[in-house]
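Writing this down once: the sequence line spells out the residues, with the fold written below as integer tokens. I am pasting one below:
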Amino acid sequence: MPRARKNIWRTFNIYYRYSRKSGLLSFLFSNFIKVALIIGLVILAVWILNTFIIKVSEIPDYLIENFRTEVVLLFFVFTESVLGLIPPDFFILWVSEMDNFYLWVGFLGVLSYIGGFIAYYIGYGISLLPRWRKRLLKFYANHLDKIKKWGAVFIILAALFPLPYATVCTLAGILKYPVSRLTFIGLFRIARFFIYAPIVIGVT
């Protein structure tokens, strides 16, 4: 076996053993299952809506006609900065009937990227308030442990998978995770919108 290939294989084995021992592989597997379940639930919800309530394809037109674009975008930035509880796929559905759909998808991705930084600096501010810092770190002890163990990998997973990205960024701020790394890692959040957009449109 050539030396370069041998070194690559050795490095892969080291990372594989670490990922397995630290629980990263099982965490990845469980999240792939969650994604599959969420897609299944979305398909079921779309079928129920289309059959008994309202055509899903009519929802974007309703939202566009009844809510100002600026208001929806501000609400989106708020959820991506503070709550992180509303799946961004609903906003992808909102822009699905607009001209230049993928341009809007990219714009949502950039706003979400910015929202991650807002969440980070909210966390940084909380780190200066000992009482709030202690409460949040205790409440999100599970996420905190994963950030400490997996660092950038966990933040990337939060950017791509159904994890509360804003919450993870806030915890990163509390821990004073290097903002220079978050600048690069956050690009995965933008990629998430382009990955999920065809799925959202295909399902609906």
In short: The two ends are 50 Å apart (CA to CA). Residues 55-203 form one domain.
